[in-house]
Design goal:
By secondary structure, the protein is α/β, with parallel strands linked by helices. Helix content is 32%, strand content 16%. The protein has a 4-stranded parallel β-sheet, sandwiched between helices. Helix 1 packs across helix 6. The longest helix is centred in the middle third of the chain and has 12 residues. The radius of gyration is 16 Å and the shape is globular.
Amino acid sequence: MANNIYHYYVEGDDEKKVIDTLKTSMQLIISGKVDVFNVIERKFTRNQIMRLKQGTIVVLVFDTDTNQVDTLLENILFLQKQPIVKKVICVPQVKNLEGELLRSCNIKQIKELTGSKSNSNYKHDLIQHKNLSNALKTHGFNIEKFWCKDPSYPFDTIKNESLSIKK
C-alpha cells in the first residue's frame, strides 16, 4: 500500500475538500492526488492519462443521482486498458455527497454540518470551511457509514470498492 500511487478523480470542489480532509488531517483514507473531473459527464483522454505515473491506482468518486451511466462505463473501460494504470477503484456516492454526509454524521439536515443558513448554502460553505475535520468530528462522522452502500440501477453493475482506500 505504501508504494502505490493513488489518483482520485472527483465530481466537484466539495468532494475534493472532503477527500483532502479525510486523507490529510483525519488520515482515514489513503493519500493521493485529487483532481476535479466529472467521470459521469466527461470522457478521459490519452493526454490526461499520460500525466499519470506508471502504476497509478485511479480512484473514481461519483454521484449516482442520475441515470447517465454510459460515459462512466466507457471511462472505466478506457482506464482499465491503459498500461500506465495499475487498477481502477470505483467509489459510488449514494445518491450524492450530501447523502453520504447525512448518513455518516449525526445531522438531520446538511446545513448543520457547516452551520450554513440554508441547505442551498451548504456547498459553498463546505468548500470555504477552515476546519472541516473538526466539523466532521463534532457531528460524529463515522467513516464506516461513509461510502458504504451499493448503488441501485443503472449503477448496480459497478461494485463499491471504498474499503480498498479506507485505512
